[in-house]
Amino acid sequence: MPKDQAAAKRDEHRDTVHPGMMPTAEVFESNAKSVAKDPAAIRMWAVIAGICLLAWIIQSIS
After folding, report:
1. What is the spatial distance between Cα 26 and Cα 6, in angstroms, rounded to a whole number?
2. Which of 28, 31, 48, 53 is the most exposed place for a label (fewest CB within 10 A)?
3. Over the Cα atoms of the chain, what is R_g?
4. pTM here?
């Protein structure tokens, strides 16, 4: 979820569940990894690309 969408969701929650209360401190920390720094994600994209390429080759031959 993009940062601005997460902030809007947080604000919506705060306004509906905790009306009238002001937050004391809010820290936004993301635990999302960049795809370029995640070897498992790179391998998964490589597998997906390989399957798509194989399907394209098989379709071209047929």
Report:
1. 13
2. 31
3. 21
4. 0.44
Handedness of CA 6, 7, 12, 14 (dihedral sign): positive
Tokens standing for 62? 């047929």
What are the phi and psi torsion angles at 9 (to 5°)?
-65, -45
The encoded tokens of residue 54 equal 């194989």
Q: What is the mean pLDDT of the chain?
A: 85
Q: Note the pLDDT tens digit of each residue in 6-23.
A: 888 988 888 888 888 777
- CA count, 13 A, side-chain hemisphere, 7: 6
- pLDDT tens readout for residues 23-53: 777 676 777 777 777 888 889 999 999 999 9
Tokens coding 53: 């390429």
Q: Which two tokens stand for residue 42?
A: 């790179």
